[in-house]
Amino acid sequence: MASESDTQQRILDAARELIHSRSYADVGIAAICDKAGVQKGSFYHFFPSKRDLTLAVLDDFVVWAKQGLVDRAFDPQLPPLARLQRLTELAYEIQKQLAAETGMVLGCPFGNLATEMATQDEAIRHKIAHIFDKFQATFAALLQEAKGRGDLGGIDCEATAHAMLAYFEGVMMLAKTQNDPEVLRQLLPTMTQIRIPAKH
User: Fold this and answer.
1) What is the pTM of this model?
2) What are the pLDDT digits (tens) for 48-100?
3) What is d(CA 50, CA 29) in angstroms, rounded to the nearest whole number?
4) What's the burial of 20, exposed, middle or buried (CB within 10 Å: 0-12/13-18/19+)?
């Protein structure tokens, strides 16, 4: 018999895959339970509502993005700007692999949910905003390190990190709209060239 933690993780895994490949609105609790191989009673034992499940799925997506993308790209042995370049390469590779498996460019799960849910559910909007803030802070710290090494001139690291995040999400959305991962290969490297001058 599966343990409670195994059952909960199966539900999370099923929901993460279905929401990423389809949408929040298109995925019902019955479909999640069917994919996870659990009864609805088990679902409600762990998650009082679909919203609660989605908030937990967002935490799962953070782990997925950190392990599969950020930790792999931000190797401390690489110079800071080389890490940023590696991030764009890995993002392309991941989306290309997902497209080969599903027939679709799935895009960024955070951007997808933000686009769909930011005006519909304040708890989900707030959660995604917090996640984006964390990613922006990671970019800003990398830029500050590069600046300290003399690799960058007088830029505003926070504003540049904000612009880089916005560009990344925009390119992800464009690739998803065109269903073409090559959009990422062509456009994402430009993110590494974004510079917002420091105010004097």
Assistant:
1) 0.92
2) 999 999 999 999 999 999 999 999 999 999 999 999 999 999 999 999 999 99
3) 7
4) buried
Q: What six digits make up the tokens of 95?
A: 């989306």
Domains and CATH numbers, the chain: 1-48 (1.10.10.60), 50-193 (1.10.357.10)
One-letter amino acid of 31: A
Q: Which long-range contacts (CB under 8 A, 24 or more apart) does 34-40 make?
A: 36/7, 36/10, 36/11, 37/10, 38/7, 38/10, 38/11
Would you tell me how many other CB atoms lie within 10 Å of the CB of residue 173?
17
* DSSP assignments along 42-102, one per residue: HHHHH-SSHHHHHHHHHHHHHHHHIIIIIHHH--TTS-HHHHHHHHHHHHHHHHHHHHHHH
> 10 Å Cβ neighbour count for 184?
26
